[in-house]
Give the backbone structure.
Amino acid sequence: MRIFVKTDLALQNSYAPVLSKSEAIGYKTQYFSAPKLIFLSGLPAGRPDNKNISYYGASCFKIQSGEIVLGFDPPSKESGLKAPRFESHVALISHDHPKHNGREALNAKEEKLLIVDGPGEYEIKGAFINGISSFHDGDQGKKYGLNTIYKVELEGLTLAHFGDFGEKDLRNNIKEALNGIDILILPIGGDTVMSAETAAQITSQIEPRVVIPMHFDSSSGKSKSGKSKSSLDIFLEELGQEKMKPEDKFTIKKKDLAEEGVKVVILQPII
């Protein structure tokens, strides 16, 4: 099978880096001039069925659809976090930080592990991946640098993983690129990422069928009522949701998605 990759210059801005060559580690690669095309050989074709989503803490997720397994933001050994160590075809890395760039933390499901670590368009085993350039902070990356949002289409179902998105609002080009998202995974913890209030606002703008918060802890903030609450409690309050029990894993099919409203899913970290 061939994997087609190209950079999408329309989705990048003047601050965005060129697409890293690290996605081609371990594969025979051919480069062509403008736009850059990369053909990677290796992964067998598969047909997705159920979408199983598991949470490994911080921003790390395992998403399986049929035969294909995607790993998002695995922490490295330098992070001090426990390594997830699940098998994956692809590791998608939002930015170069020890809690997110653990290329060695995942086991290759096939002969080689494909690394995707920047903006661009990718087609891998029937999964269409769009890496969208964004900022890690609300000051155009001047404080924490760049971040990549990954939009993934898996046989009729589309999800977005926001990495360490830290902007104060959703720019129009990003909103347009994320049109039609079914499952939204986004950080809500504040400090180095967007606040719970901003995350709720962006959820309302994107209007996914399912939203899964990540990158939060029990630290307190102030809710609308002025009471001291965790970022998760504030996020739920902003969306008009009650407290809920975390789930160990979330399994979904396109036909099971609600036609109206947003379902909030809280996942219990596996490690």
In short: The first strand starts at residue 2 and ends at 6.
